[in-house]
Amino acid sequence: MKTKKGILDSNLFYTVLAIMIGFCIGAIFLVIAGISPAVAYGKLIDSVFSKPKYMVWTLVYAAPVIFTGLSVAFSFRTGVFNIGAEGQYIVGSVAACVVGILFHLPPVVHALVCILAAAIAGCLWSLIVGILKTKRGIHEVLSFIMFNWIAYYLQNYIVNLPAIHKQSGGEATENVADAARILLPEGLMRSLDCSGANWGFVFAVIAAIVIYIIIEKTTLGYQLKAVGFNKNAAEFAGINVNRSMLTALGISGALAGLGGAMQTLGMSGRLSQLAAQEGFGFEGITVALIAGSNPLGCIFSGIFYGAMKYGGSKLTMVKAPSEVVNIIMGCVIIFIAISQVFKTVFTSIGKKKKEA
Amino acid sequence: MDVIITNLGLLINATLIATPPLLFAGLGSCFSERSGVVNIGIEGMMTIGAFIGAVAGLYTGNGWIAFLCGGLAGAVLGIIHAIVCISFHADQTIAGTAINFLGTGLALFLCKALFDNSSDTPALDPASKLPKIFEGVFKTGSFGSNVLNVYGVAYLVFVLAFVCWFVFYKTKFGAHLRAVGEHPEACESIGIDVYKVRYTCVILSGFMAGLGGAFVTLATINQFRPNVIVGQGFIAIAAVIFGKFTPHGTTWACLLFGLCTGIKTLASMSNTVSPNLISMIPYVVTIIALILFVGRANAPAANGKPFVKAR
Q: Given CB atoms, is B221 within the 8 Å cutoff of chain A?
């Protein structure tokens, strides 16, 4: 009885339930579109789990969204809404790419310098918004949205600069130096049979653990959470609210910037001209929501999202629109959002049974 | 002199094309935000409006009916947002994020299902688009043609802006909706149905966002493509905050955006500066305007907070 109550109380149960409902609703739309859900979902699962290579690809897809998810989760926990992770991700990937092309450093050092540059770029991009908020009182959501678009055009501008633009045409930059890449050692890569296998996921897990420790185990984390929970009370307790907010935004921005570095140094190896925002920042919001803003949870929700992205990209093979993934994700978020209602209903049913 | 007048005409024309989608969505969003429900799902609502508008245009051949259908499609997402946020007390930011996924996902999914895996709808013929008001009166390319012979809806939306202002400040419903966003408990105690007011406002917000989206596919261009809306919903939200959550403020903010987009369009015709730098103009101008003139925008007190009825 106790265990049953424990399950009904746990958030994980409702998250899994929400994911299942999301898939059911996705199935309804597939049927409407005249596609067998069994075939589509079979393909989805098959293209993630059937070979070790595919699972490695899933982790490769997961790394950047774990970082942007961490970024958003951290901001949620500290009381701001970082809808600007998209822009910070972009400036992060731009910084990593530029440093990766223009500098010539020994291996490992070069990669670390690129990663550092990305973190600083993301951090500064987010801090500008923080300063606008603390000094001029400008709503952070508003300036984040503006800075997302400025970052977007900035990337397209920088990609086309002659110093780094690819010599032989194409809408992309040169490849970053091999020393700056964060790919797995060649032997390992060959045995995994995955050309994109890189350290990004390992970095993401380390970052998640570090952020978890900062939030849960340090004085800094306590202060940031206090400001997020109740600004006035925190100020009354002697916490410098503005400085805390800037710290929170800086860390959040750096995390999103790191996500950009993982994608550039790990998977793509260069920057391309963007035709639309890639959405890593907005996917980060979803990852954070599914994880309930828990940094460790972001690892798992990031893997889930990575699997859906990678598997979804293969759905066209069975002629199913890959956008069914977005529909499923939308439903999952809605049902997580209203899981409190389920909780109340289930708990009251449980109580009634007990009384009867 | 002639060059200046021609360019001015082109600028006004470009502004009148860029502003209406933002203004429709922004005005709707004013209702939602002022009644106390954050709606960051505008983007998704505009996208589904744009898609359904284009499809209805294809099947009915009547621009006005199609326009209305686009609005209704947005309203359907508005209803979902309202149920989740108001009746189920869910976190409004989370729900809005979900609406964005659903709106864009559904539009592209249905598009591929309906049109043989193509992510674009077939092009509409001019007759089934929204009508221009002075078709054939002015010489093509003249100042009069550029300024006056635009899609009728582009002028209608400014009338709508006035109507919204009137509703907000001169009617009982307007007073109620503003009060509900500031202090729902007090409203309930004097017998205002908080839920009813909020439902109306959120659904209205979806409807108008849908109209904004439909304007893009039925006037600006003539088909639905995956990137027709991209970002405009978020710009509309920005405009509402910029306009301090008032219909008139939002109107000016949307016009500023529209004007900057117009300048962008004109400037990119001459090939001297990188188009990417020119494209930054609307966003940089907004930030500068905020730093210099606007400053603090205080959201309605109860914005984003679920309201639980007293038992």
A: no
